[in-house]
Amino acid sequence: MIIATKNGFLVAAELIREEAGYWLLQPRDQKTPVRVNKQDNNKRAFTHMGDALRWAGDPELAKQFDARARS
Description:
By secondary structure, the protein is an alpha+beta fold. The chain is 28% helix and 38% strand. A five-stranded antiparallel β-sheet has the order 4-3-2-1-5. The chain is globular and about 30 Å long.
């Protein structure tokens, strides 16, 4: 998965567990898992890079990932 923030920060992460209100993720660059609330307006988790980029505010770059997914 990809953790995305509204300021454009993206981090690859492994999904440990998904609950009704949050994802528990293990970021690749950290030793401690993080809990990402599904209702958080500043941080979210995504399975597709295009979706993460679009949410983080870069729709033009997201289009490139969308095109690659269709190829």
